Amino acid sequence: MSQPKSTEGLTRREFLRGAVGVAATAAVGSLPVALFAHAQGSDRIKVGLVGCGGRGTGAAMDCLRADEGVVIHALGDIFQDRLEASRNGLREEFKDRADVPPERCFIGFDAYKRVIDSGVDLVLLCTPPAFRPLHFLYAVEAGKHVFMEKPVAVCPEGVRMMLRGDEIVRQKRLGVVAGTQYRHHPGYIETVRRIHDGQIGEIRAMYAYYNAASPGVKPRQPDWSEMVYQLRNWLFYTWLAGDQPVEQFVHNIDVMMWVMGGPPKSAIAVGGRQVRTAPEYGDVYDHFAIEYEYPNGARVLAMCRQWDNTAFRVSNTVVGSEGEAVLEQFTRFYVRGKERWEPGSQWPNPYVLEHRNLIQSIRKGEPLNETRQIAESTLAAIMGRMAAYTGKVVTWEQALNSRLNLVERTFNLTYDTPAYHDPVPVPGKTPLI
């Protein structure tokens, strides 16, 4: 898959102008093709799941909870045990709506194609993010509606592939929602609305945090190849996960992009391995601090780390000329400025809402399209990682047009493909590509 020509040499302004066009296109017109197979007069929605790990199985359950017409039609994964665990869990919880027969359970690196080609209406893309561009392009070229987990790439070339897919989505008027559930949470929506309405004045600064515990390492098994070991422990390999700013912190970086109305002009960062120094932790860092600068002079300090037995904090704080606003993961929100707003802490489940919103938007003929939105946020996270890895100031244009290509590693993989052993990045020595 080659770089989409329409994104070569893009500037920040051109990128933003494209985003406005997508928003306008997504809200008009009716679908040229039917979303659902109306078998025997029903509104049955056939859903395929690609990636049957914990998050994929959770996404399938959330989709089933979102709409009574949903049935899980096909499952795909590269590992048999993951698929069987997902299949059994879904069937136990939802019985006939998730009773997938063996002939629609697909194993292997091409399982995504077989799920997408099995007659599904909507596909859930929940593999490690390295595979998202490849799977997404295949799905939208096939005319399928998509729910995809965040992030959507691990390198700039992957982001450009997503932008190419966005063009197809708009042409076919498909529905696409990403797993950035804050965008569907009423507390986040109302807080950001009030910020945009000027209730805290001009935005001067923002603080974003994702300070959490470390995921665990899966012990090596005698029958695993080195590639299988990395795939089982994908969170610790940048080529598969993108490192913490991309794989996890993208949630709060996405809030930054939402509040600020677009991408920053540059980033400078620090990071390293303070706690997770053993070889089993692959090539990723365990902490980052990134400063994003916006054209209006506003700065965003973005901090993330994965250390056990340390303080947990996942939040965004926005500082304005006339007050501040806080958005704390799912629970605590306030705006203190020209007006004071402090709602309660009881909210509907945003993991279910994002699926419900997608399905309802397509039923209405006004499909949501979050492709470019999440591509922007993913690139901002990649930009911050690049700044930390190299020790350089990285501009938006440099990140968008970077030659760094990790997504090509996902093409034509097998279980015995030689694994990638990338060195741990060293600022000042690791080049900015």
What does the model show?
35% of the residues lie in helices and 19% in strands. The chain is an alpha/beta fold and 433 residues long. The chain folds into two domains: 5-182 and 354-369, NAD(P)-binding Rossmann-like Domain (Rossmann fold, 3-Layer(aba) Sandwich), CATH 3.40.50; 183-345 and 379-407, Dihydrodipicolinate Reductase, domain 2. The chain has a nine-stranded mixed beta sheet. A hairpin with a 3-residue loop joins strand 13 (332-336) and strand 14 (340-341). The radius of gyration is 21 Å and the shape is globular. Residues 1-41 have low confidence and may be disordered.
CATH class membership of the largest domain: Alpha Beta
Derived structural class: alpha/beta
> Number of DSSP strands?
15
CATH superfamily of the largest domain: NAD(P)-binding Rossmann-like Domain
Largest sheet: 9 strands, mixed
Give me the strand/helix succession.
HEHEHEHEHEHEHEHHHHEEEEEEEHHEH
Radius of gyration: 21 Å
Helix content: 25-40%
Contiguous low-pLDDT stretches (5 residues minimum) are 1-41
CATH architecture of the largest domain: 3-Layer(aba) Sandwich
Number of structurally distinct domains = 2
Query: What general form does the structure show?
Result: globular
* Arithmetic mean of pLDDT: 91
Distance N terminus to C terminus? 20 Å
Q: Strands of the largest sheet, in order across it?
A: 14-13-12-11-7-10-9-8-15
